[in-house]
Design a protein that fits this description.
Elements: E1 2-9, E2 16-23, E3 28-32, H1 43-49, H2 53-57, H3 62-72, E4 80-83, H4 88-98, H5 103-114, E5 116-118, H6 119-127, H7 135-143, H8 153-167, E6 190-197, E7 200-204, H9 207-218, H10 227-242, E8 246-247, E9 250-257
Parallel strand pairs: 1-4, 4-5
Antiparallel strand pairs: 1-2, 2-3, 6-7, 6-9, 8-9
Helix pairs in contact: 3-5, 4-5, 4-9, 7-8, 9-10
Length: 258
């Protein structure tokens, strides 16, 4: 069974504040999720998603939401969860670490995490492009109409299902998004940030994502984690890699990749 899923999350802690999911058969699941401290929601996230502190303060706990999600999912056959973008895994990890205590809640989120696929990677391969395309742009391409994306997790999950269904068996003769190809059709060079310790290996697509992981897995700084703090962590990771020194007990490696 295929499921298309999307999360909205707190800006700095990455705690999930809403989940929307739709099955290949059209069945839907949606809920707001109360974070550890609802007051931490920023104006940016409220403006982006429309979700307010008052709504989150009254929302069900992550334990309750993902216990109900575990019951909702059809577990009688192989499961595939499709998201769009590489942020969702970090949202799941943060919520598992900070907000889940119930066994079935943990089962629900872990079930998603272990079967999650980023469909934006498949889209890049499908069109032969080097950069990710916004979900909104893809929906407009397939529908032929302009849309207003409200960043509602259920709405975005439905959008992703539409994109998947239109693209999965599509034959592309000529890429309709030439602006998403790098010059001379050469792959774009990106940074790969790796943290290693013994048999543990973590990979990140940017210093920013590595810093988010450091905060989510290694620190407990709460409201002190602002853009300035994140920038400092990024710089310390970079210096640790340059000087071959450990940072938070990890060896850091930075390399270019296509």
């Amino acid at each position: 069974m295929k499921y298309f899923i999307d999360f909205e999350a707190m800006q700095f802690s990455n705690e999930i504040i809403s989940v929307g999911c739709v099955s290949e058969n059209g069945e839907q699941f949606y809920s707001l999720v109360q974070p550890k401290k609802a007051k931490r929601i920023t104006d940016f996230i409220t403006t982006l998603t429309g979700i307010t502190y008052e709504e989150l303060d009254c929302a069900p706990s992550a334990d309750k939401v993902f216990s109900e999600f575990y019951e909702w999912v059809d577990k009688t056959e192989k499961l595939e969860f499709f998201c769009y973008g590489d942020c969702d895994d970090a949202f799941i990890k943060s919520t598992l670490k900070h907000n889940i205590t119930d066994f079935y809640g943990q089962c629900g989120l872990s079930l998603i995490k272990s079967n999650l696929k980023d469909y934006s990677v498949s889209i890049r391969e499908h069109f032969g492009i080097n950069r990710s395309i916004a979900l909104k742009k893809l929906v407009e391409y397939y529908s032929g109409e302009s849309i207003i994306q409200n960043h509602n997790s259920l709405e975005d999950a439905i959008y992703l299902k539409e994109v998947y269904e239109n693209s999965v068996n599509e034959v592309v003769k000529e890429c309709p998004f030439p602006e998403y190809k790098s010059e001379n059709n050469k792959p774009k060079i990106k940074k790969l940030i790796t943290a290693e310790r013994g048999n543990i290996k973590k990979e990140f697509a940017s210093y920013g994502k590595a810093a988010d992981w450091v905060v989510a897995d290694q620190l407990s700084v709460g409201d002190l984690f602002d853009d300035k703090t994140k920038s400092k962590i990024c710089n310390r990771i970079k210096k640790a890699a340059e000087k071959s020194k450990q940072y938070f007990g990890y060896n850091w490696i930075v390399e270019n990749k296509v």
